[in-house]
Fold:
Amino acid sequence: MKKPLWWGIGIVFVLALACGVWWIWGRDRGPVKVKAIAVAPISMQEEVFATGNLVPVSRQEARVLNPGLVKKVAVKVGDSVKVGQILVTLDTTQIQQGQMIYKAAIAGTVIEVNAQEGNLSPVQQPLVVVADLAQMNVEAQLNEVDAGKVQLGGKVTVTSKVLGNTSVQGTIDQIALEAVSQPSVQGNALPTVGVRIHLDQVPAGLKPGSTVSMQIIVATKKGVLAVPQIALFQEGSKNYVYCIQGGSLHKSEVKIGIGNDTHQEISSGLKAGDLVVLNPSNQLSEGLPVTPDTGSGGT
Structure:
């Protein structure tokens, strides 16, 4: 029995379709155009950013263990006091004979008064708080990674919304010897390390308890090979870049050094003048023919 004519026509159609698909997708579509930049030595610094709170270097809290009648409050908030100046006098005749007089142990400014004449002295709160507002520190908590980068004597730039474009310089004078776990919003314990920065000077407007921002320079290097952060990609724990060699891609493992928001030091794996691809996508692969675009978008 002869096969129907449509059977032969169908075979021819399938073969023609397959050839057409091969011709469209299997042919050489030419090199892929990619953004690229030449590796070059630069000067760079690594920084740690954090926030902290202002704390007076010297602070006195006049407190009582047993309540007494407040006979005299000799100061008010904002007063400047000298060492030995009377702050509060209590009448303690109900618990002992005589009066209890509280004097300023430091020279400074009265920043808090909780005692009221004619009332019993507070026990949970200090009667009076005096602070030296001319000398202040910044206390901050750094994550354990950043804390491992900072060092005693490190220079810090402190900024605040109160100061506008003005910044204040400071020096790290204390780093805690242990990390403390602080609960996060998710409930996880995140180890942090306490760091104290002494301000070189205290501009007007900065108040105890205020929040400030800090920029800590942890490393500075000159003439190091570096690439933009957007050139790097990771596979497992290793770092790679795509280099362009002879018109095609070559995946190169690199070792990294210090880094900042824009660049990463390359300690090995590249040399000056190598072309690396920016923003490598999953569509790129070893040996893929490419054409580098080193225009303004690749700088």
